[in-house]
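Why run this: before we spend reagent on co-expression, it is cheaper to look at a predicted model of the complex and decide which construct boundaries make sense. The entries below are exactly what would go into the expression plan.
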Amino acid sequence: MTSQQLFEQIQAKRSFLCVGLDTDLKKVPQHLLGSDDPIFEFNKAVIDATAPYCVSYKPNLAFYEAAGTKGWNALVKTVKYLRENYPGQFIIADAKRGDIGNTSQMYAKVFFQEMDFDAVTLSPYMGSDTAEPFYAYAGKWAVLLALTSNASAQDFETLSLAGGGMLYEQVIRTSMGWGTEDNTMYVVGATQAQQLGSVRAIVPDHFLLVPGVGAQGGSLEEVARYGMNRKCGLLVNSSRGIIYASNGRDFAEAAGRAAAELQGQMSALLAEYCKG
Amino acid sequence: MTSQQLFEQIQAKRSFLCVGLDTDLKKVPQHLLGSDDPIFEFNKAVIDATAPYCVSYKPNLAFYEAAGTKGWNALVKTVKYLRENYPGQFIIADAKRGDIGNTSQMYAKVFFQEMDFDAVTLSPYMGSDTAEPFYAYAGKWAVLLALTSNASAQDFETLSLAGGGMLYEQVIRTSMGWGTEDNTMYVVGATQAQQLGSVRAIVPDHFLLVPGVGAQGGSLEEVARYGMNRKCGLLVNSSRGIIYASNGRDFAEAAGRAAAELQGQMSALLAEYCKG
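The model came back. Tokens follow.
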């Protein structure tokens, strides 16, 4: 998918919502646990209820690995289900991988060739080797961690460099040269909304993946004000606030309502800040 | 396992070798491909041949994930086989994970509780949140990336900080406070042997996991000279040089010979540099 195609999805849906599928067997409603594949059944119901209101899904790999081979199977089925039923959705493997070249090659093959994700999140610590093999797949994306939404982001990401600027800014500056606006996004946490301005000064046109709205306390309005560009340029993720909106038999309807509510806010923010 | 117990294994074997199980179906000898589980059969034969000469095994998760659910099953069986047959071996999940707290918790559960690894490699970019949940498991280890063996390590790891020193040094300084010498190791590449001295100045007593000897060109002698302390303090990894020493029917014997050769060199280096 190109950035233009992603923007067209955003315009069509009036939404830049990414639904985080952090599916945890301990939080799946009781009545699903008897089925053959409760993780997939949960995802399928959440997807059917939320797809009209979002443009992207982001399964967090840790949650599937925690369920062993059953979890891995459920992940494969989830991606396949999305591809077959909602082909316009941008599917992100939230894997935060980062390794040397021959290992990154293996990961790229897993996520892009075998599972047909659109994008994978990567930790930039080890440098360009980490990302390069992912760029070999046309139409696929690397989503690089820049300034994350967690409290300890300040341990290293915001360290001041001798050459000026902070580490996360240098990560963006250096990695801009690895790919293009059509295959590179950056993770910038919603809890850091005001720093979105400094990110936009470096990469005015790139898409940013913004977690941290909802359970982590970030403000959607601030994210749009500081981060939106003329082609939106934002995917805002919400996970727990949507998929666990209810833990009863109405979990899918509740997820749909929570997604619809965010979509309504996003539609207004697009009208206000995205003068395309 | 404590660092003292690990040192006792090193003394008993006269070896600080870690065998990297980067098992790739494309490189597994032809005659194994007909078996039900060629990845596990390969690992089992390599382990039986190399166990007398090493103190640690390090499966690289990417290679198992690339083989889908079969790969994941083979990984689970490999760890179980090691635990049951070679209980003194230190088993490292080379996963290079790094995520926010609730996700790291899931990974810690996968690697320490469900699979019984001794240690997991972590990327420090996102700060202490990444590591904290792993420290909740007594006797288990976090192995933090510091200065890696790949060429693009210089993109960010060696950036000079405004407060002095390089990023990787600050990563070590800050993360020293997260754990202890009994649950924290650092990855320092063999291709950076001379910088091992600067690492030792910060963490004289911690264990270091050193990849990059062999296929990547690092020198074992330099690693020992600059990195060894009075309790050895080193695990040196070799992957491709051992497990793919031959791709014929003699692959296991060839792996055993390659491991024995390194063990012989390590025994001499322990005598020279480890005055315990």
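Chain B has a mean pLDDT of 95. Chain B touches chain A through 54 residues (CB under 8 Å). Bring this page to Monday's planning discussion.
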